[in-house]
UniProtKB/TrEMBL annotation:
Transmembrane segments: none annotated. Residues 92-101 have a biased composition (Polar residues). Residues 56-78, 102-113 have a biased composition (Basic and acidic residues). Residues 34-147, 162-194 are annotated as: Disordered. Residues 950-966 form the DNA mismatch repair proteins mutS family domain. Residues 164-180 have a biased composition (Acidic residues). Its main location: nucleus. GO terms for biological process: mismatch repair; mitotic recombination. One of its GO terms (molecular function) is ATP-dependent DNA damage sensor activity. Keywords: ATP-binding, DNA damage, DNA repair, DNA-binding, Nucleotide-binding, Nucleus. This is DNA mismatch repair protein. GO terms for cellular component: nucleus.
Length: 1100
């Protein structure tokens, strides 16, 4: 019989009595009165205050409240009472230190019943209170145990936030069951079966501890899985579901109640796609694969252990070359990075003075193409040299050896840290320590690495020359090379360093080095508006068809030539292609390039690394065959259809690889290769002995299985039996259920229907196992034969790569000839190097603006030469086209030295060894430099590095400070470049008094941008820009006109106009007074000051 439920009041009293202070001599009544009065005053607020705090423990304790039998028998009302009291109890327990009086009064019950009822009941309930107390204590202990570690609640909340809605109950349920098991996890030994982790998870943990910075993708059966924190990251990046569980790998007590790792999974065939996305997001990704196969494991002696798994592939942005080729460059902001992995180290140079000079070594590797760039240089406190190299190389990953100085570190962070940075995306940065003896260790490590290569290599001359070249590298570069070999060994790419033909010094002086500031201000690789490639010089020139051609042209644009012979050769080739456009030889060349859609350069390097798939190998070899057979009749340069040596040499390099490529294609069965069928990939006569043995083994087993049918038929008393395959299970023998009595007990039933049953005989099972073992051994033999084929092809890497480079050169020359075919482009003529520096342009235009402006570009003609005019001082109204004019001139010079035709009617020039620019106003918050500091620092660098054959552009120097200081700096710099450096200079200014100084300097010519100023219908002055360059000085900048165009409120402009005319009036008056003084001086003292008087009157 169920116990009768207590009335509600009584229930509440049992609780109150627990908290009421027990007193002697009947003082309880007094306390009661006091509490009643207080409770009446507080009751609404106290209820409100208590309700939120009461809610959470109620839920928790109801879950906990699974007491044995006793609790089951209790009514629902009793359970509610227990839960409520436990909530209060835990509350008081937690807050014992606070004054008990105030706390208990809050929970006093506002008793509306007569007081004597309470007194009557109190004694009856004392026994019950003691029991209640004990139970409350037990509940509290259980609650604290459940709470566990102080972080547990926060962790739980995070888990619930991360988990999908449906998983909450599951997570809670697990927590309850695991209470008892929690302590076990801490004490668990590695490999023990008793702990919560499965053997596979323990195996995963062992690999993870060695690679904590890597996201591991683990092969488990037919899926790839992520565990723990990796799963959370993968779920976020790949938009897949993460099943909640342990996140940490150190078995922390806060996760003691969880019995499995958080996990996420992807299907096997989607691995390349997802790995690529994780790598593109900047993570380091490792793939852990099962090394054994099922059938061979079954036959082996380790059949009861988990599959052996190993980390087989590691990828980062710089080293990703796998199944699906290169990473797709985001078409977002920024120029695409060159895919280079850059290693940098630096030491303090010659003491550590205020100049903060450093000695820097860099080594950049592009694993996707095999290019290696190195350099060793000294840099000043602006770190301009490092910036220039980083902008040219645009790495997607940094490897930093040792500590960098503050300036360099900030620069690297600035250039790599943001997702809209110079390289188009966030770059990954890794650091390795640098010991005191690093230089000696690096030298011996590199020597050892190349000495081993020498032993293996049969072509001794090249290998010996290679070792010789490497050992002569400067010390900082050797340190970088050693670090890079170690770094790439982790990714299995270290043998890229065998290809030392592609070792290039960055600052080889056959190229003009354009620094980072110039690249940005001339918009060479990206425009300065939204930092995308559209609207840049490279965009205007890039009409290439192939990917290797695109990459080579990018290099050509960033490194204009300084060798006149090479330049003339390049221009002659472009001119010949231009003259012969629409003729058969050029059409044939275009057809060849259009067919070479495969990125042969990347595919070749993937063959070299052994990472190529079968279908890809066939398509690459076929593409190479097409390329080689296109000019198969050309045996020597004289047979080629062109006269330019550059074109003929490139065409001649193509057919030389034909025999090599055909010899490899002979071995391959095309149909099987396209389907990626490893068993039929090689034609029969090219199969290895192992492959043939296992194929014979499989044929023998199948023959035996065929022969076994007669034996099986005899046993079940039939004439013949046929094998059937159901649901992928082969060699089943079907027996009608009516004849089942004839089936021996040794046969195992696999499946059946109402009418028949399907069996395997013991002999069939044995033979199937034997066949599966042969199959897996055959698969291994096929893989080995394929790897051997890739190794054989990579031995011919050099000639194949040379042919692809020749193809890229042809593509670039054809692209430049398409640019030259545009109207108004002409061939530049270079003056002999003995002549004085000269640039003479007739009707020049801006190479980029004429593509983007709708109305066309107004041409300009100008000449800079030694001894005069060495410099142009350019004045003119705001928005009059001054900056556009100087940039157009610089771009024309740059294009000429790339080997392209230029947008001008005529251009004659001597070679410039550098182009320096100082334009625009920007601060550098990363380096803590103001706008003016950046301005003068760049100017200082130009003054240090410019020579007589440089072209220097200074745009509004001195505008970032007060007028007097700015004008003084501008005047001093102008004087220095004209008299000391004597380089060709374009100097833009709004300081009109500089024009007076210019007249006194030899070699400076005043030019201005033409305009018309006239009164409009509304009485305001209107300025029309003519965008033409004329001689003389513009005495006003017409800033108010620009303010009007920018729609500054009319009221503001009127005030500004008034102030401007007042100031001009004052200035005129002062000058007039000065002239009067000079005139009286001339009258009194004779004609000494006469010249000064005349020039002052002219200026007025």
């Amino acid at each position: 019989m169920a116990p009768t439920p207590k009335p509600a009041a009584k229930k509440q009293q049992s609780l109150t009595s627990f908290f009421t202070p027990k007193t002697v001599n009947g003082l309880a009544a007094v306390f009661q009165k006091e509490s009643e009065a207080r409770a009446k005053a507080q009751s609404p607020s106290s209820k409100d205050a208590a309700s939120p705090s009461r809610k959470r423990p109620l839920e928790d304790t109801e879950k906990e409240n699974e007491q044995p039998e006793k609790t089951l028998k209790k009514s629902r009302a009793d359970e509610a009472e227990d839960a409520e009291s436990s909530a209060f109890f835990s509350k008081t327990k937690a807050n014992q230190s606070s004054p008990s009086r105030a706390r208990t009064e809050r929970y006093r019950y506002d008793d509306s019943n007569p007081r004597n009822t309470q007194e009557a009941q109190e004694n009856a309930e004392e026994d019950e209170d003691a029991q209640e107390k004990r139970r409350q204590h037990e509940l509290h202990k259980k609650f604290v145990k459940k709470l566990g570690h102080p972080d547990a609640m926060a962790w739980r909340r995070r888990l619930q936030d991360d988990a999908p809605a449906g998983d909450d109950e599951e997570a809670d349920g697990e927590g309850d069951d695991d209470d008892a098991a929690a302590p076990k996890t801490k004490a668990k030994k590695k490999g023990s079966k008793t702990g919560k982790l499965t053997p596979m998870e323990i195996q995963f943990l062992d690999i993870k501890r060695k690679h904590l910075d890597t996201i591991l993708i683990v092969e488990v059966g037919y899926k790839f899985r992520f565990f723990g924190e990796d799963a959370r990251i993968a779920a976020k990046e790949l938009s897949i579901v993460c099943i909640p569980g342990k996140m940490r790998y150190d078995e922390h007590p806060s996760e003691a109640h969880l019995d499995r790792f958080a996990s996420a999974s992807i299907p096997v065939h989607r691995l390349p796609v997802h790995a690529k996305r994780l790598v593109a997001a900047g993570h380091k990704v490792g793939v852990v694969r099962q090394i054994e196969t099922a059938a061979l494991k079954k036959a082996g002696d380790n059949r009861n252990t988990p599959f052996i798994r190993k980390l087989t592939n590691l990828y980062t942005k710089g080293t990703y070359i796998d199944e699906n080729g290169e990473l797709d460059q985001g078409s977002g902001s920024g120029a695409p990075s060159g895919g280079y992995l850059l290693c940098i180290t630096e030491t303090k140079a010659k003491g550590w003075g205020t100049d903060e000079k450093v000695d820097v070594g860099i080594l950049a590797v592009q694993p996707a193409t095999g290019d290696i760039i190195y350099d060793n240089f000294e840099d000043g406190f602006m770190r301009s040299e490092i910036e220039t190299r980083l902008l040219h190389i645009s790495p997607c990953e940094f490897l930093i050896v040792g500590d960098l100085t503050k300036g360099t570190d900030k620069l690297v962070q600035h250039l790599s840290g943001s997702s809209t940075n110079v390289f188009g995306d966030r770059s990954r940065v890794e650091r390795v320590p640098r010991g005191k003896t690093m230089a000696a260790e690096a030298y011996s490590h590199v020597t050892q690495f190349y000495a081993d290569k020498l032993k293996e290599n049969t072509q001794d001359e090249t290998a010996a020359a290679l070792l010789d070249k490497v050992l002569k590298l400067p010390e900082p570069v050797t340190i970088c090379l050693s670090a890079m070999i170690n770094h790439l060994q982790e990714y299995g790419l270290e043998h890229i360093f065998d290809l030392t033909k592609y070792f290039q010094s960055f600052s080889t002086r056959s190229h003009m080095l354009i620094n980072g500031t110039t690249l940005e201000s001339l918009e060479v690789y990206r425009n300065s508006t939204d930092h995308s490639e559209k609207g840049s010089l490279f965009w205007a020139l890039d009409k290439t068809i192939t990917r290797p051609g695109h990459r080579l042209l990018r290099k050509w644009v960033g490194r204009p030539l300084l060798d006149q012979e090479l330049l003339e050769g390049r221009l002659a080739a472009v001119e010949e292609l231009l003259e012969k456009q629409s003729t058969a030889p050029v059409a044939q060349l275009e057809a060849l390039l259009a067919n070479a859609k495969t990125d042969l350069e990347r595919s070749l390097i993937r063959i070299y690394y052994g990472k190529c798939t079968r279908p890809e190998l066939v398509s690459v070899l076929q593409a190479l065959q097409k390329v080689a057979s296109h000019y198969s009749t050309v045996k020597s340069p004289s047979d080629a259809p062109f006269t330019s040596p550059l074109l003929n040499d490139a065409i001649c390099a193509l057919p030389q690889i034909l025999d090599t490529v055909i010899s490899y294609l002979e071995q391959i069965n095309l149909g099987a290769a396209r389907k990626d069928d490893k068993y039929g990939f090689f034609r029969d006569e090219y199969q290895t002995e192992d492959m043939q043995d296992h194929q014979l083994g499989i044929a023998h087993v199948e023959h035996e299985l065929d022969g076994h049918r007669a034996v099986a038929a005899e046993k079940i008393k039939k004439k013949t039996v046929e094998y059937v395959t159901v649901a992928g299970i082969e060699y089943l023998i079907e027996v009608p259920n009516t004849d089942i009595k004839n089936v021996p007990a040794s046969w195992s039933k696999i499946s059946g229907t109402k009418k028949l049953s399907r069996f395997h005989t013991p002999e069939v099972l044995r033979l199937i196992t034997e066949r599966d073992q042969h199959r897996e051994a055959l698969a291994a033999a096929c893989d080995k034969a394929f790897k051997d084929l890739l190794a054989a092809i990579s031995a011919d890497y050099q000639p194949l790569r040379d042919a692809v480079s020749a193809l890229a050169t042809l593509d670039c020359l054809l692209s430049l000839s398409k640019v030259a075919a545009q109207p108004g482009y002409s061939r530049p003529s270079f003056l002999p190097s003995s002549s004085d520096p000269t640039i003479s342009i007739t009707n020049g235009r801006h190479a980029i603006a004429e593509h983007t402006l709708e109305g066309g570009y107004i041409p300009f003609s100008t000449k800079l030469a030694h001894p005069s005019p060495l410099a142009h001082l350019i004045t003119g109204p705001n928005m009059g086209g001054k900056s556009s004019f100087v940039r157009a001139l610089a771009l024309i010079v740059l294009l000429a030295q790339v080997g392209s035709f230029v947008p001008a009617d005529a251009l004659s020039l001597t070679l410039c060894d550098a182009i320096h620019t100082r334009t625009g106003a920007r601060d550098n918050l990363f380096a803590g430099e103001s706008t003016f500091m950046v301005e003068v620092s760049e100017t200082a660098r130009i003054l240090r590095s410019a020579g007589p054959r440089s072209l220097v552009i200074l745009d509004e120097l001195g505008r970032g400070t007060s007028t007097h200081d700015g004008a003084a700096i501008a005047q001093a710099v102008l004087q220095h470049v004209v008299t000391e450096t004597r380089c060709l200079t374009l100097f833009i200014t709004h300081y009109q008094n500089l024009a007076r100084v210019a007249e006194g300097l030899d070699g400076v010519k005043n030019v201005h941008m033409k305009f018309k100023a006239e009164k409009g219908a509304d009485g305001e002055e209107e300025v029309t820009f003519l965008y033409e360059v004329g001689e003389g000085v513009a005495h006003r900048s017409y800033g108010l006109n620009v303010a009007r165009l920018a729609r500054i409120p009319k009221k503001v402009i009127e005030v500004a106009s008034l102030k401007s005319s007042q100031m001009e009036q004052e200035m005129r008056m002062r000058r007039l007074k000065g002239i009067c003084r000079t005139l009286s001086d001339v009258m009194d003292n004779g004609p000494d000051q006469l010249d000064h008087l005349v020039s002052s009157i002219e200026q007025l």
